[in-house]
From TrEMBL:
<dbReference type="GO" id="GO:0006417">
    <property type="term" value="P:regulation of translation"/>
</dbReference>
<keyword id="KW-0677">Repeat</keyword>
<dbReference type="InterPro" id="IPR011989">
    <property type="entry name" value="ARM-like"/>
</dbReference>
<dbReference type="Pfam" id="PF24987">
    <property type="entry name" value="HEAT_EF3_N"/>
</dbReference>
<dbReference type="GO" id="GO:0005829">
    <property type="term" value="C:cytosol"/>
</dbReference>
<protein>
    <recommendedName>
        <fullName>TOG domain-containing protein</fullName>
    </recommendedName>
</protein>
<dbReference type="InterPro" id="IPR016024">
    <property type="entry name" value="ARM-type_fold"/>
</dbReference>
<dbReference type="Pfam" id="PF24984">
    <property type="entry name" value="HEAT_EF3_GNC1"/>
</dbReference>
<dbReference type="GO" id="GO:0034198">
    <property type="term" value="P:cellular response to amino acid starvation"/>
</dbReference>
<dbReference type="GO" id="GO:0019887">
    <property type="term" value="F:protein kinase regulator activity"/>
</dbReference>
Length: 334
């Protein structure tokens, strides 16, 4: 005879219960109630209660109870009070909840950056983002960096400024992660420091040195200011940047972050009409290639530097400069 299951009546009662009495729906209604107080009244107790649900229920609270969607809806479609409340929830979650929540918070970073143009929300958005990046693991930061780079090229100048400021904080706390994405970061920073909006340009000029400090090759540290000036006004300052590069003695290994900073100015020099600048660029390319230990570091820049070197070999009248370009191309190809 099969023993009677004492839990069966309880299960039947739950299955027959009204929808509002089913635990997951009950929790959903509770979450909605907390969120309503947060978005309409900026209720701090409701923030604590909602975050408490997230902590105790885990990922179920975000999915089955719809908390993630509630926060996302508030931050993207609500009024200023609702958006401010959503920022409070996000900030509290990143501090209080375990690391499993990080992918959900990272997904909200672009929406937080988009709040920058709103005068009443800008400070809160910056504070929230600073708290988020300060508490994420390094792997999550690797995902946030491209989001910041996208924000740095946004239409709204306030979003550009906020994204650049947060990138500076990321560079200070997670230098290894920034170094891994240095080529992409430098290309975006070049756009920022040459922006026509003075506030964007000023922010970029202030943050760029912090970004460059993640580079471990100390040979180039003394010339970082000249390189940044070159990127801020290529037409005017590229010759000075190349002069500084030519006066630098490279003795340490040249890696991908180092190349990421130097290649754009070398590329610009190779495209200059003045052949003396072409020669200087080619000389530096050759010198750097001699100190690249990992061929993969140079390989990613080969498609960028090979065309201008080949073009110089074909069109420059000066035989000595053509020879310099040929030697540098051979070193780059190894």
């Amino acid at each position: 005879m099969i023993a009677e299951n004492s839990t069966a009546p309880a299960l039947v009662e739950k299955m027959d219960a009204p929808v509002s009495d089913v635990p997951v729906n009950s929790d959903m209604l509770q979450a909605q109630g907390h969120m309503e107080k947060i978005t309409k009244e900026s209720d701090a107790d409701a923030v604590n209660a909602l975050v408490g649900m997230v902590k105790s229920m885990g990922v179920v609270s975000l999915q089955a109870c719809g908390i993630f969607e509630l926060v996302k809806e508030a931050i993207t479609g609500g009024d200023d009070i609702a958006k401010s409340g959503a920022l409070s929830v996000i900030k509290s979650c990143v501090v209080s909840v375990d690391s499993w929540i990080e992918p959900y918070l990272v997904a909200l970073v672009p929406s937080i950056l988009a709040l920058a143009p709103a005068n009443k929300l800008r400070a809160g958005a910056k504070d929230c983002l600073a708290t988020v990046v300060d508490n994420l693991c390094s792997h999550a930061i690797g995902v946030v960096i491209p989001q910041l780079l996208q924000g740095m090229e946004a239409y709204e100048w306030q979003t550009k400024v906020l994204s650049t400021e947060i990138l500076g904080e990321v560079a200070s706390k997670y230098p290894e992660q920034v170094a891994l994405q240095m080529p992409e970061i430098v290309r975006t920073m070049m756009v920022v420091v040459s922006d026509t909006k003075s506030k964007v340009k000023q922010t970029g000029m202030a943050v760029f040195p912090t970004v460059c400090n993640v580079i471990t090759n100390v040979d180039i540290h003394p010339i970082i200011p000249a390189l940044i000036e070159g990127y801020s006004n290529p037409a005017k300052n590229t010759p000075k940047a190349l002069e500084a590069l030519n006066g630098t003695t490279f003795v340490n290994d040249v890696d991908s972050p180092t190349l990421g900073l130097l290649v754009p100015v070398l590329l610009h020099g190779m495209k200059e009409r003045k052949t003396v600048l072409v020669r200087k660029s080619a000389v530096v390319i050759g010198n750097m290639c001699k100190l690249v230990n990992d061929p993969r570091d140079a390989a990613q820049f080969y498609p960028i530097l090979e065309p201008p070197l080949n073009k110089a070999i074909d069109v420059v009248a000066d035989a000595e400069i053509r020879e310099v370009c040929t030697k540098s191309l051979n070193l780059l190809s190894k």
